[in-house]
Amino acid sequence: MLRFFIIAAEIIVLVIVLRSPFVQYLFADIQNTVSDWLISITTVAERKELANLREKIDEQLSPLKPYQQSYIQQITADTASVKRFYSDYCEKDDINPNFAGTKRAQLCLIIKQSPVMQVAERD
């Protein structure tokens, strides 16, 4: 009987400790850290392809002006941005203030031939 009361008291103390704000904060922090790790592990291949695309654009369209370089960084930030750029400025032929004429045509060709868009077509 005494053993039952000791075990019950331990369980009650454990529940009280686990419900404390500090422990909740600690668990939330651990969960966020682990989630960030998992997200970064799952996006390694995508980030590598985007970095390769950036390098290819820099090689084939150089010299780029600073505002064009920062724009390339923006559109190659993730796959969705690349798809959006390609849809708006390559397929729909909207006017792009950063790239025009042959530079835009070259950029569209580079993006179309990139593995980033090849993966997009399969999905």
Summarize this entry quickly.
With 123 residues, the protein is mainly α.
Report on this model:
It is a single chain. With about 120 residues, the protein is mainly α. The protein has 2 domains: about 1-40, no CATH class; about 45-120. The protein has helices at about 1-20, 20-40, 45-60, 65-75, 80-90, 100-115, 115-120. Helices cover about 80% and strands about 0% of the residues.
Mean pLDDT metric? 89
Number of helices: 7
Helix coverage percent of residues? over 70%
Main sheet attributes: strand count, strand direction, barrel closure:
none
Number of domains: 2
Strand and helix order? HHHHHHH
Computed Rg: 25 Å
Q: Give me the secondary-structure category.
A: mainly alpha
Question: How do the helices and strands line up, and which of them pair or pack?
Answer:
Blueprint: H1 2-18, H2 21-42, H3 44-61, H4 66-75, H5 79-91, H6 101-113, H7 115-122
Key features?
7 helices; rod-shaped; 123 residues; single chain; 82% helix; mainly alpha; 0% strand
